[in-house]
Amino acid sequence: MGSEQNNSSTSCTNHHHVHQDSETSPLLLASPSTTDNELREAPSRGMISAAKQKGRLLLLLVAFLYGSLSVSLRAVYARPGPPAPSILSATRGWMSVLCLWPIAALQSPPVTNGSPSTEIYSKASFYWFAFELAVFNFGTQGLLNIGLVTTASARSAFFTQLSVIITPILTYCIGRVRGKQILVEKKVWFSCFVALLGLYILSSDKSGGSNSGSNESTHPSVGNNALHVFSFGDWCCLGSAFCWSYYIYRLSDWGGRYDETQTMLIKNIFMAILYTLWTVASYFYANECSSSGDSGGSFCLWEGWRDPISMVVLFYTAASSGALCDVLQQTAQSIVPAAESNVLLSLEPVFSALLAMILLTELPSAHELIGGAYIIGASLLSSN
C-alpha cells in the first residue's frame, strides 16, 4: 500500500514536472539565447543582408549613370550653338517628368487611404517631402553653376564632394537634435575620409583643363592660404555640397515611406518649375538676350535648339541619370544608410573618367588613377 502510494506520488510528481516543463517550455523557446530562436532570426537577418546588397548594387548603378551625365552634357556643350545652363536644366527637367508620368499613372496613389484627417496629413507630408527634395536638388545644381563662374573646376570639385564627409556628420547632428542616438559605424567614418582623400587627389590634378583665364585670376592659389580665404564661388560650392548631403539624408530618412515613382514624379515637376523660373530670369537678365533680339531660327539662350543630336543626348540624360536614377536612388536609400550611400555615390567621377576614356578618348592621368583607387577602396570598405 505504501509502495503504491509512493509510486502514485512519484508518478504525480513526475507528471507535475512534465506538466511544469510543458508550461515553461514556451518561455524557454522564447529566450534569446536558445538555438531555435537564432534559427528563426537567421532568415530575417539574411533577408535584410540580401536587401542591403541589392541596395548597394543599385547605388553603384546610379553612380555609373551619374558618371555618364557629365560626359553626355560635355557632348551637348560641344555641339554648335550650345544651350545656357538654365534652359538646359529646364529641358532635362521636363523630359524627366515626361519619362516618369506614364509609369506613375499606372501605379497606386502615393499615400494609403484612411481617415480623412490622416489622409490629408499624409498627402500634405508627401507633397512637402517631394518639394523639399526638389528645393535641395535644385540648390545643389544651381549653387554649383554659380560657383563655377569664379571658382576653377578642380577646386569646385573638391568643395562639392565634401558631401562625403558632411553626410555622416549631418546625420549624427540631426539625430542628436531629435533626441535620437544615431550610430555611424567606425568603418563608415573611415571610408568617408578615404573617399575624401581620393576625391582630393582627383580634383588636384593640374594636367586637366581649367576654367578660363578670368576665372583663374579670381581664383586664389593654394600657396596664398586659399583654404583660409574663401571666395563667393567657394562658398557656393560648399553650399552645393551641403544641399546634396541633406538630399541624401532625407532620402534615407523618409524615402521608404512613399512610392518611388510617385515621389520622384512630383519632385521633378517641382524642379522643372524652378528651372523654368530660372530660365525666365536668365532670359531677362542675360547679356546675350538683352543685346540681340531672337530670330525665327535661333534663341538667345540656345541658338542650336533645333539640333536633333543634342535633343537625343538630353533625352538620354533625362531618362537615365534623371528619371531612372531618382527612382533607383530612393529605392536603395530606403535600405542603405545615408553615409554609406554617399560613399558609394562618390564613385561617380571614377565612372566619368572611364567613360570619357572610352567615348571621348581622354586618357586618365596618374592623379585620376590613384584617386579612383582610393574611392573604390572606400566603397568596398563601407560595403563590407
TrEMBL record:
The chain crosses the membrane at residues 57-77, 89-106, 126-144, 156-175, 187-203, 226-249, 269-286. InterPro entries: Diverse_Substrate_Transporter (IPR051258), EamA_dom (IPR000620), EmrE-like (IPR037185). Keywords: Cell membrane, Membrane, Transmembrane, Transmembrane helix. Its main location: membrane. One of its GO terms (cellular component) is plasma membrane. Residues 1-42 are annotated as: Disordered. Residues 1-13 have a biased composition (Polar residues). SUPFAM superfamilies: Multidrug resistance efflux transporter EmrE. Residues 232-382 form the EamA domain. It is a multi-pass membrane protein. It is found in: Cell membrane. PANTHER family: EAMA DOMAIN-CONTAINING PROTEIN, OS03G0707200 PROTEIN-RELATED. This is EamA domain-containing protein. The lineage of its organism: Eukaryota, Sar, Stramenopiles, Ochrophyta, Bacillariophyta.
